[in-house]
Design brief:
about 375 residues, six-stranded mixed β-sheet, six-stranded antiparallel barrel, globular
Amino acid sequence: MSNALRLTALDALHRSLGATMTDFAGWDMPLRYASERDEHNAVRTKAGLFDLSHMGEITVHGPEAVKALDYALVGNISTVGVGRARYTHICQEDGGILDDLIVYRLGETEYMVVANASNAQVVLDALTARAAGFDAEVRDDRDAYALIAVQGPESPGILSRLTDADLDGLKYYAGLPGTVAGVPALIARTGYTGEDGFELFVRPEHAVQLWEALTKAGEGVGLVPCGLSCRDTLRLEAGMPLYGHELTTALTPFDAGLGRVVKFEKEGDFVGRAALEAAAEKAAAQAPRKLVGLIAEGRRVPRAGFSVVADGKVIGEVTSGAPSPTLGKPIAMAYVDAAFAAPGTSGVGVDIRGTHEPYEVVALPFYKRQK
């Protein structure tokens, strides 16, 4: 069995652009091209171009596809209209989060589930097992798609130069088939940056043509290629959870403050229902640790796993931390005891190698774009 990293269809192009590559969930992915701070700021003020071909696409189709998905996932998939998308979770029987997903309804009986790269096989296996009792087929489409995202305030203008699809009519969390730069694509108004933007699902053989066309269309407005490093600081500022950090099998959606994604009112049973009903009751009776934002008063950067402290006691744990280019200070997301979760709570610090560095507790997100 070879341990070779998987390469995206854009691999040679990334190398020609001088990208620093990194192993991410078994894929060789661009970490940055030049300065991650410049890439981050470009997405906030102009536009950035991302290769996200490592994400895991799984197609579920057939007469009972929606029933299979309603049983397999915690969301109410039957209420997703054709051409729309829904954020949801797939949970274990004990309520622990296996992954967070986006489900696109492509047709009357066809859905595309997009899983995180690190969990794609786990999600595929779980969906396959859970769909067994239904008249539906689960297909591994990870090799059928390349995924290119253009994100940032200039992205609608850039994309409109390359397609006659109705971008103005395309709402957030919607997807429509169209042609971009002569290439057939699923155009989705989704992203992981806190900015307006689009994710374009295309066949791998069309990826280079599309990337080059987008690069050319963005030349006059400051579009730059962006790596995974700035994608992480962008999603952190936007308060978006990352699997393996804010979401794990040890947490239910209620623990993560995302109980709203669990739809008990939907018809029929679903995997984890009983455990999640108990978790919902427990969360209502006694607030679990809450996910909050922390802003540093100093310059030291907190990292995942560092303890959050108050009055000499550990009151929580950092799940993600990084310098924030937009705020100009280190920031972190952390789960803290409910008593310390209110914005403005004083006396909270992070234990950074034995020193308790002072932090301000704030509500998430750190950054919200002006609509």
